[in-house]
Write a structure and sequence with these properties.
The chain is an alpha/beta fold. It has two domains: 235 residues, Rossmann fold (3-Layer(aba) Sandwich); 63 residues, no CATH class. Helices cover 32% and strands 23% of the residues. The strands form two sheets. Strands 6-7-8-3-9-10-12-11 form an eight-stranded mixed sheet, with helices on both faces. A four-stranded antiparallel sheet has the order 2-1-4-5, with helices on one face. 43% of the residues are buried. The chain binds adenosine-5'-triphosphate and magnesium ion.
Length: 308
């Protein structure tokens, strides 16, 4: 059976006391099994909310519409048991906030070992083995510690184990390299690559790090305010960006001169293109009509009226 995750017209609105937040807007994206898909975009663009929607982890006040299909099943309509099975046996998550995902009152070994199968000893050994793969080079020592005794980067790697269960078919890694120094970064990078290429694992990688995205990912989707504004092959999207927002993200990198983009306006932009207040190409027609995500060259899609 096809193991792709097919997202169609996904929208997420949070109904909060201070109003509505439209975090994901009509996103359609197929995550193919066997390629690494990257999701990039600045803070608050809806990346983690998309991951939570796939795993049905959104709070009750989130209104979710559209469709997320996986192995013939509609995830958004699955019952509790199916959702539990989905999280335990099919789609793993390396969460963005390791502190929130670890129990502060338990040592690291017992809470990470319970992800794995087998006898107590087997689970312990596989946990140590995976800790080493993720650059925790003294696993016995790490396993004995409580979360508060680990650095941020160590906690990040400890929660990575949640996504490494053998039986998983998919892994969603939300900022897997945040807060890591270059040596450990390289180790984590190689583990993710091995897991995907040889572990037969579908992978969605959410990251701020464009260098990671271009090195690790095969395909890429760029989110802006909950909307995909550009997607395609990672090397092409970042090599020849067509949307002004993707260009802006690249220009802001140190190696490209750190050219800052125009800041995001405080009020929400209504009508027309949402990026226009920050866009160097914006013209009159960008006010009048909201651009569709259109195919420009083979496999590349761009949401911009003026990209060429
Ligand atoms: N539980 C929630 N309740 C209300 N609003 C939320 C909730 N979770 C996220 N949001 C809002 O949804 C939007 C998208 O948030 P999200 O966490 O997906 O951003 P992100 O792209 O992952 O950002 P970052 O790169 O900082 O992790 C933001 O405006 C955020 O404030
Ligand atoms: Mg996030």
């Amino acid at each position: 059976m096809d193991r792709a995750i097919e997202i169609n017209h996904l929208s997420v609105v949070f109904h909060t006391e201070s109003g509505q937040v439209h975090a994901v807007k009509d996103v359609s994206l197929t995550l193919k099994h066997g390629v690494i898909t990257g999701l990039i975009g600045e803070t608050g663009s809806g990346k983690s909310v998309m991951a939570s929607a796939i795993l049905r982890m959104l709070p009750f006040y989130a209104e979710v519409s559209g469709s997320i299909r996986y192995q013939g099943m509609e995830i958004l309509e699955a019952d509790h048991r199916t959702v539990r099975d989905l999280r335990r046996n099919h789609i793993g998550l390396i969460p963005q906030n390791p502190s929130e995902s670890l129990n502060p009152a338990r040592r690291i070994l017992p809470q990470t070992a319970e992800c794995f199968e087998g006898s107590r000893r087997e689970r312990r050994n596989i946990t140590y083995h995976n800790m080493e793969k993720m650059g925790l080079n003294n696993p016995e020592d790490t396993g004995r510690k409580y979360p508060f005794q680990l650095s941020g980067g160590m906690k990040q790697r400890a929660v990575s184990l949640f996504g490494m269960r053998e039986q998983l078919d998919w892994m969603i890694a939300d900022e897997p390299t945040k807060g890591l120094d270059m040596v450990v970064y390289q180790q984590v990078f190689e583990s993710l690559q091995t897991l995907s290429r040889h572990g037969n694992r579908g992978m969605l990688v959410i990251t701020h790090d464009l260098t990671l995205a271009v090195k690790l990912c095969d395909e890429l989707a760029v989110l802006y305010e909950g909307e995909i504004v550009e997607s395609g092959k990672a090397k092409e999207v970042l090599g020849y960006p067509q949307h002004p927002y993707t260009r802006g993200l690249l220009a802001s990198l140190p190696q490209n001169g750190m050219h800052a983009m125009v800041a995001k306006p405080l009020e929400e932009v209504h009508g027309g293109c949402r990026f226009r207040p920050r866009c160097p190409l914006a013209g009159e027609k960008c006010t009048g009509c909201h651009p569709d995500l259109e195919e420009t060259t083979l496999g590349r899609k761009v949401r911009c009226l003026r990209h060429d």
